[in-house]
Amino acid sequence: MTRLGEITSEANPLSPAPPPSWFRGVIQGKTRIALAWIFVAILGFTAREYPTWPGITLCLIGATLRFWASGYLRKDSRPAVGGPYAYVRNPLYLGTYLMALGVALSVESWALLAATTVLFAVIYHYIILDEETKLRRIFGEPYSVYCTAVPRFFPRLLPAFLPAHRKALDAVNPDLEHRQYSWSISMKNKSYEAYASFAGLVGLVAALAFAWKLLG
């Protein structure tokens, strides 16, 4: 479920062209929900063992990233640059990806992990490009500056601590209040759903493993 502000993302002048209109029709509506159910269905056949701690930890990291990012999402005239948005333009999608990888890792299903990576890359690449077009139209030049300063999906940690990087973010959004985590904004964005999803996924994997052991 994507909110317009969820991808305080990219769109520099050299970025790839937005997806064609036919693809917008594919990724809109219930397509992503269907993909989630496909993931769960595949999980049902692969979760033969109880979830392992490395996978659980990775899934929790993804949920925490989503929770953290939700406290900086303001639907206004300026891009979000606080918290994780200083390091990566799409922390919510990155968090979702880490959660999915964590689940696949927790059941030690390398096929599911590979399939998740490929599907995520194909589908969400175009979802992000489509949203970038909207955000460029909404935020204008500050958004282009933000795209130059912050990577799209994989965080670039070191520049975030350099004065030049902070100066670029100040040019994008100088409002210091937007650099502070807001519990009210977080709750408005339903940040608690991140941990609820984490608990549900881990619980589902454990329940499936238990069921397979009973059948075996």
Task: Provide a short characterization of the protein structure.
This protein has 216 residues and is an all-alpha fold. 63% of the residues lie in helices and 0% in strands. The longest helix is centred in the middle third of the chain and has 30 residues, at 110-139.
Summarize this structure as a short list of keywords or feature phrases.
single chain; 216 residues; mainly alpha; elongated; disordered N terminus
Structural features, described:
By secondary structure, the chain is mainly α. The chain has one domain. The chain is 63% helix and 0% strand. It contains nine helices and no strands. The chain has helices at 21-27, 31-46, 53-70, 91-106, 110-139, 141-149, 163-172, 183-188, 192-215. Helix 3 packs antiparallel against helix 4 (91-106), helix 4 packs antiparallel against helix 5 (110-139) and helix 6 (141-149) runs antiparallel to helix 7 (163-172). The radius of gyration is 18 Å and the shape is elongated. It starts with 20 loop residues before the first helix and ends with a helix.
